[in-house]
Amino acid sequence: MIAAAKRFWKTTNVITTDAGWMIALDGRNVKTPAGRPVTLASQKLAEVVAEEWQAQEDKIDPATMPHFRYVVTAIDRVTPQRPDIISQLVGFSGNDMLCYRDPDQNELANEQLKRWGPLLDWADETYGIKLETGTGILPIKQSADTLSRAHHMLVEKDDFRLAGLYNLISLSGSFIIGIAIEQGRLIPQDGFELAFLDELWQSKKWGSDSEAEDRRQTIKQDMIEATSYLSLLL
Fold first, then answer.
1. Angle 33-175-213 (CA atoms, 0-180°, nearest 5)?
2. What is the phi/psi pair of residue 88, to 5°?
3. How far is CA 49 from CA 58, 133, 197, in A?
4. What are 16's strand-pairing partners?
5. Within 10 A of 141 (CB to CB), how many other CB atoms are there?
6. How far apart are CA 190 and CA 122, in angstroms?
7. pLDDT for 69-125, tens place per residue?
8. pLDDT at 4
9. In angstroms, rounded to a whole number, what is the distance separating the alpha carbons of residues 178 and 170?
10. Range 61-70 average pLDDT
11. Beta strands 12-17 and 20-25: pairing type?
12. pLDDT 10s digits, 127-181
């Protein structure tokens, strides 16, 4: 990402070009760490990214620039590795955490069925992505048709949308949860609670340590930021 550097500009502007919107620092266009030009198809996203740059103080702090981080991910990572990124995401559909029920704790297994079942039904009814479920941790083989439908859905998305979706899916461990948040079927808070249903259930029953809670809060914030970024795309 961005190197820890001092602020070197005074003014930040959004510039309209034939190719899209660009962010300029004292008239010089922003580039990614790999040296690629930042050109955006969304004016709203460009304006938010410009605000993140303008808000920097003496030193550039990447942690305060979540929308720009996703832009960089799209340009420097997704675009040159698009087939591999899509393949990784399809892999989540083949091993979605929503498909696995706890074999030893009936109360938890019932909660999983109650909370996860409707979302799996939604994916089947809306996109024809029907995932098989089972108990235990042994891999569940999903049909070739299901994997093909997941692949087709991803291929239709541009690199910028894939950048946000990648985080939602990988953070939640669920292709379905990621797609549901991206499509507005779930808000990030609900998606987070479904993704961490097991952990939250265990912590409520047995208690939780501060390190685990901090980790979950960080992931929840990342999911909120990814959703905010996606909402600014065309």
1. 75
2. -60, -40
3. 18, 41, 33
4. 21
5. 10
6. 15
7. 999 999 999 999 999 999 999 999 999 999 999 888 899 999 999 999 999 999 999
8. 60
9. 8
10. 96
11. antiparallel
12. 999 999 999 888 899 999 999 999 999 999 999 999 999 999 999 999 999 999 9
| 3-state SS track over the chain | CCCCCECCCCCEEEEEECCEEEEEECCEECECCCCCECCECCHHHHHHHHHHHHCCCCECCHHHCHHHHHHHHHHHHHCCCHHHHHHHHHHHHHCCHHHEECCCCHHHHHHHHHHHHHHHHHHHHHHCCCCCCEECCCCCCCCHHHHHHHHHHHHCCCHHHHHHHHHHHHHHCCHHHHHHHHCCCCCHHHHHHHHCHHHHHHHHHHCCCHHHHHHHHHHHHHHHHHHHHHHCCC
Beta-bridge mates of residue 12: 25
Structure tokens given for 87: 């393949």
- Range 192-199 contact pairs with CB under 8 angstroms and sequence separation of 24 or more: 192/216, 192/219, 192/220, 192/223, 194/98, 194/115, 194/116, 194/119, 195/97, 195/171, 197/111, 197/112, 197/115, 197/116, 198/102, 198/108, 198/112
Q: Do residues 229 and 197 touch, judged by C-beta distance below 8 A? A: no
Domains, in order of start, for the chain: 12-78 (3.30.2180.10), 82-231 (1.10.3580.10)
Going by their DSSP bridges, the two strands 100-101 and 134-135 should be labelled as parallel
Which pTM was predicted? 0.93
